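#onboarding

Welcome to the new folks! Below is a worked example of what a typical request in this channel looks like: someone posts a single protein sequence, and someone else replies with the predicted structure as tokens. Don't worry about understanding the tokens yet, we'll cover that in week two.

Example request:
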Amino acid sequence: MIDEFRVEIDVPVPEGETERARVYRRWLQDGLDHLAGDLLDRLRAGPPLVKSGKYRVDGEPADGPPGSAWGALTMTDFTASGKRRESRRVWSPKNQDWFFDQLSDTTSRAQVYLTELNERGLPALRKVNFIAERPMYAPDWLVLTMTSNFGRPTDPSLLQEVANEMCSILGAWGDSVDTFRFGCVCTDIGSVLGQTPLEDALHINRDKNLSGDRTQLRGYSWVTLCPKEVVDRLGGAGRMTASGAFFSVEGLANGAVLARATENIDEYRGDAVGRVFRALAPALPAGLPSPSRTRGYLLAHEDADEYR
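Example response:
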């Protein structure tokens, strides 16, 4: 059963001394506003949090009482001497205000993590994770991600509501920037190194690919946000619509396209995945996905080169 969702968009590092921090704040606030309401309500109504591992459940280290909500705010930046520095505080209204105030153009990574604790007082159930990152080896780009995980059987209508919300977030961001590298909404999250499922299956380094060919997608998913350069390579939005691979093809003001494979996210499997792959193959990296690296991924086991 689907219970984990991810939305991502990769945007250029903006010009201006305070613009990167502004992008960080907007992304993280969007996540809190649209995807974290249930956890924020519980955090606001609950007692003050303690640092990770400072609580005890049956004598063992824990983050808080079983079944309670917990959260952390983390940022990484570099000092004037180039030394890496990480700051981390548990969530509270005051700490959240401090966190947003401290974000700056020297911040390389900012993260908001909220969760529901299990019977041992550890994160394992409902959780959201919002990250804004400037990769060390792709410094011209910001990788913005939001992940929502329910961790238990959940009403399918609620899951679809979250998927739709992520689709709306992605469309709004895609429409508000002049250009971007790639965007998606997916349930197959990819590797811990930040690769898309396709990059992982083809052994492609994320940061090198971020700085690579702008006419090539990093992957494909239930919803794929294609920049103008990719749309042009595919023959335009009209040709994408005519392929029959998508439930909807929404053109954006900057020439980009938000391509949604199926109406409901749980319908995106099997033949639907293959149709999207074939429609986008001219703009996908070449290679046959490695069988040892595709478990759990929604990928067609074909080489995009066959559809050039």
